[in-house]
Design goal:
19% helix; 10-stranded antiparallel beta sheet; alpha+beta; Beta-galactosidase, Chain A, domain 5; EC 3.2.1.22; Immunoglobulin-like; hydrolase; 732 residues; GH; 8-stranded parallel beta barrel; 3 domains; TIM Barrel
């Protein structure tokens, strides 16, 4: 049984075969005791030492114990203005203008399974026996506010999810100023903090720093999770590597503004808070109303970062992504964007499709520029009607001709945006996010539609369904290329204006949920100028994401390596593009470009008319090879072997669940004179199996403990190779 409540000690113990999470009631406050490797029997009670540590640390008014202070005890749900001066998980303003809140235990419920979060993405279960859930209700009866803390532990995964539901039980409106989803307190600070910051075309870069005293804040105030920060951190014990050491991972299942606040206090205790950003946030909680926070996924791993990643990968593939595509092989696509940009017509597209079919591509994607008067990025967003000049026979005819060639047909949309030069803007100039009477900034020559408004959502859904009901479409690339500014909505009261960013996200989720349910056969791909909103919230609705607009293979090695910390390869899309690369101008060998792109969901973005026959033949061979190994790459066990952040090399592998087959990708970044030899130790093999690599046979034990020298025959910059390991029937 994964959740036990010991009534005599007031202790909650969540556990499975890998992990334990322990809380206990102390003076009716919910305090944190332990999170880490499984403890079979947690018998201690009152685990936190009792000591009056400071006269400046007040004691709760409901107790007479000078040795107990909220200022230093480890807590599950710390508040504001009641004796804890550290960062709070919540903050509220009451009708009298004050904020003091002190939640205490009221009740709890334990049940099998996991409830859905109303209107929000979240992990789920297929059968109730996959997980157990603990709901703990805390109450401040003086203020008339309840908070229900939800904890779900999976039976077979080292993952726990947390969220909070607030309910106003009073007769007055309560303003939520901060409503975070999770707090975890540690009794020490001997950690390194790992994060995934970035920028457009340089997403999810790995940065690791020692945890220092004070407050470290990662956040987004952009109205989206953003390219600049991923809503993720991991705390690593010192000297943790990819394969060794304790890791505590936190990932927020939300696509809007977020905050992750890590505080080390004066006693070298660490607090990690995760949730919606309180910047530009306020929620009017009316009497009897409920506010539900998004979910946080917590993963503990005792064997390093790869161990953490394996948990995230399986959880997100199997119990975050939804729909018929989540476990299906993804098609090899060709996208016309870098080949044509806005300058195309029907014949050019069909010619490109013919060339792609000859190479073995399976899906043709028509990117930006297909709708009315869209000849550059200054016009037409919001007018989702095919351009009759570029496509005189219409989208349905183009789709039909693509399908006749044996290809699937995909289409690009940016439904959340509007151009000032558009019919929709002329008809509804107040439908975008703006402050009345105040100038609105432009980003990429476009404005953000106010998806908090029902009439806006209804119109965009009407336009999209009109196309999707009439045109056979197999794939949609959903883009979003602009963050919020001048945040205001015509339909919200002055007291509600700070609700807009979250109301926008709820509206967006509603639209995407409707469309993906109405068109279950369409493969939706999430995009936001690349990775600008590549987060688990979007992964719930769309099972794959365009990882970056940067298609340079060498830049992509780092981007895809960082992304793989939390997302599996089947959720990551990559494409083989032209040289010189359109983003950085680099000239990289074709095979290296292909090997990087084939390490994810593979596609091509080439002007086939400009490529030599030699190049086309090579691309055809790569597509054939990828299809042969696609199941292993997309759904095998992925492990990182060498980090490009720490070396001139990079490597990763894909291994079958039965350990009978593995692919090892190896990259050398820059050439060097008199270079030392590098011995690569493989992972995930069966030590008792014999494996063939070409004509040579090795034991799994030898490959994992000794390894292989891979760089002696690699000269020059930007080199790569792929090893295919197949198990031989003969054992040692």
């Amino acid at each position: 049984m994964p959740i036990i409540f010991h009534e005599e000690t007031g202790q909650f113990h969540l556990f499975n075969k890998d992990v334990s999470y322990v809380m206990e009631l102390k003076e009716q406050f919910l305090v944190h005791a332990y999170w880490g490797e499984r403890i079979r029997s947690f018998t201690q009670s009152d685990t936190y030492p009792k000591k009056d540590r400071s006269s400046f640390s007040p004691n709760p008014y409901r107790t007479n114990d000078a040795t107990f202070s909220l200022d230093n005890v480890l807590q599950e749900f710390p508040g504001f203005d009641s004796g804890d001066y550290r960062e709070p998980a919540f903050e509220m303003t009451y009708s009298d203008g004050t904020k003091a809140t002190q939640f205490q235990y009221a009740s709890h419920t334990i049940y099998s399974g996991k409830k859905r979060l109303d209107g929000l993405p979240a992990t789920y279960v297929m059968e109730d026996d996959e997980a157990e859930t603990l709901e703990i209700t805390l109450a401040d009866n003086i203020r008339g506010i309840h908070a229900t803390l939800s904890y779900t532990i999976y039976r077979d995964r080292s993952a726990i999810t947390k969220s909070v539901q607030y309910q106003n039980m009073s007769e007055h409106t309560i303003q939520l100023n901060r409503a975070l989803s999770s707090c975890v307190d540690f009794d020490d600070a001997a950690f390194d903090l790992l994060q995934l910051p970035g920028a457009w075309a340089r997403e999810k870069q790995i940065v690791k720093t020692p945890l220092a005293m004070g407050i470290h804040v990662l956040d987004s105030k952009r109205g989206a999770s953003s390219t600049h920060q991923q809503p993720f951190i991991a705390l690593l014990r010192k000297n943790t590597t990819e394969h060794h050491g304790d890791v505590y991972g936190f990932h927020f299942v939300y696509s809007g503004n977020f905050t992750i606040r890590t505080e080390v206090d004066t006693f070298s205790q660490t607090r990690v808070l995760v949730g919606m950003n309180s910047h530009n946030f306020g929620w009017q909680l009316e009497p009897n109303a409920i506010f539900q926070t998004p979910e946080v996924v917590l993963v503990y791993a005792k064997n390093g970062l790869n161990d953490m990643s394996h948990t995230f990968h399986s959880l997100y593939t199997e119990r975050l992504a939804r729909g018929e595509h989540k476990l299906q092989e993804r098609p090899v696509l060709i996208n016309n964007w870098e080949s044509t940009y806005f300058q195309f017509d029907e014949q050019k597209l069909l010619h490109l499709a013919d060339g792609a079919k000859a190479l073995g591509a399976e899906l043709f994607v028509l990117d930006d520029g297909w709708f009315e008067a869209r000849n550059d990025d200054t016009t037409s967003l919001g007018d989702w009607v095919a351009d009759c000049k570029k496509l005189p026979s219409g989208l349905a005819n183009l789709s039909s001709q693509i399908h006749e060639r044996g290809l699937k047909f995909g289409l690009w949309f940016e439904p959340e945006m509007i151009s000032e030069q558009s019919q929709l803007f002329q008809a509804h100039p107040d439908w975008h996010i703006h402050v009345n009477g105040y100038p609105t900034s432009l980003g990429r020559n476009q404005l953000v539609l106010d998806f908090s408004r029902q009439e806006v959502r209804t119109e965009i859904v009407r336009q999209m369904t009109e196309i999707l009901d009439a045109v056979p479409i197999d794939y949609i690339k959903w883009d979003m290329n602009r963050n919020m500014t001048e945040i205001g909505s015509r339909d919200l009261t002055p007291q509600q204006q700070m609700e807009l960013p979250h109301r926008y996200m709820l509206g967006l989720y509603e639209v995407i949920d409707y469309l993906t349910e109405r068109y279950p056969h369409i493969l939706f791909e999430n995009c936001s100028g690349g990775g600008g909103r590549f987060d688990p919230g979007m992964a719930y609705y769309m099972p794959q994401s365009w990882a970056s607009d940067n298609t340079d293979a060498i830049e992509r090695i780092k981007i895809q390596y960082g992304t793989s910390l939390i997302f599996p390869p089947v959720m990551i899309c990559a494409q083989l593009s032209e040289i010189p690369n359109h983003q950085v101008g680099r000239i990289t060998p074709l095979q290296t470009r292909a090997n990087v792109a084939m390490s994810a969901n593979f596609g091509i973005m080439l002007d086939l008319n400009k490529e030599s026959q030699e190049t086309l033949d090579a691309v055809q061979q790569d597509i054939t090879w990828y299809k042969k190994h696609r199941q292993l790459i997309q759904f095998g066990r992925f492990s990182r072997l060498i980090s490009p952040y720490e070396s001139n090399f990079a490597s990763w592998s894909f291994t079958a669940s039965n350990q009978e087959e593995s692919l090892v990708f190896f990259f050398k970044i820059l050439g060097a004179a008199s270079e030392p030899f590098l011995r690569l130790q493989l992972r995930d093999l069966n030590p008792e199996y014999m494996y063939a690599i070409g004509d040579t046979t090795y034991s799994g034990e030898e490959l994992m403990k000794f390894g292989l020298y891979l760089n002696p025959d690699m000269s020059g910059d930007f080199q790569s190779k792929v090893l295919h390991l197949k198990r031989l029937v003969t054992k040692m």
